[in-house]
Amino acid sequence: MRWYNQREQGALDEISPHLHGVWLTFYAPTGSVFDSVAPDPVVGSRPDGTVTTVGDVQTGPRLAPLSWNDETVLLYGVPFGKPEPDTAEEWALVVTPPGN
User: Fold this and answer.
1) Per-residue pLDDT of the chain (100 residues; tens, 9 = 90+)
2) Are residue 58 and residue 69 in the same domain, yes or no?
3) What is the pTM of this model?
4) Cα separation values, 62 from 51, 71, 100, Å
5) Range list of H helices, 1-100
6) Distance (Å, whole) CA 40 – CA 84
7) Calpha distance 84→95 (Å, rounded)
8) For the chain, which terminal residue's Cβ has fewer other Cβ atoms within 10 angstroms, N or C?
9) How many C-beta atoms lie closer than 10 Å to residue 42's C-beta?
10) How many domains in the chain?
11) What residues contact residue 53 under an 8 Å CB cut-off, 6+ apart?
12) Among residues 82, 87, 30, which one has the least CA distance to residue 57?
């Protein structure tokens, strides 16, 4: 089996089979940018001319309670550098013992 990493819209980079570590995947509650907006504004229209409002989006089906958010790998024996704020690397600090 081969594993690949894809950054943004770039090419697939093969992950070395010699990589040893723990892959962390972070999930977040499924939500929408429309959840905090009043239900009345029109956000789109259909081919038949009917409109879609924020309320239509808010009450639409949610496929799952959680959705993929980010991921990172913690390599065995490799110390953490200083992570950028609000990144998977920063979030990973909560699953590692202090001083590692």
Assistant:
1) 788 877 766 778 888 888 888 888 888 777 776 777 888 988 888 888 888 888 887 777 777 777 777 888 888 888 877 888 888 888 787 776 555 5
2) no
3) 0.53
4) 20, 22, 38
5) 54-58, 88-92
6) 38
7) 17
8) N
9) 10
10) 2
11) 39, 40, 41, 42, 43
12) 30
* Structural contact between residues 32 and 26, judged by C-beta atoms closer than 8 angstroms: no
Are 43 and 20 within one domain? no
Tokens coding 71? 């991921």
Question: What amino acid occupies position 66?
Answer: L
Residue 15 DSSP SS3: strand
Q: What distance in Å separates the CA atoms of residue 79 and residue 36, rounded to the nearest whole number?
A: 40
Domain holding 96, by residue range, is: 1-30+65-100
Structure confidence at residue 13 (pLDDT): 86
Strand, coil or helix: 54: helix
pLDDT score recorded for residue 99: 57
**Separation of alpha carbons 9 and 11, rounded Å:** 7
User: Do 72 and 88 fall into the same domain?
Assistant: yes
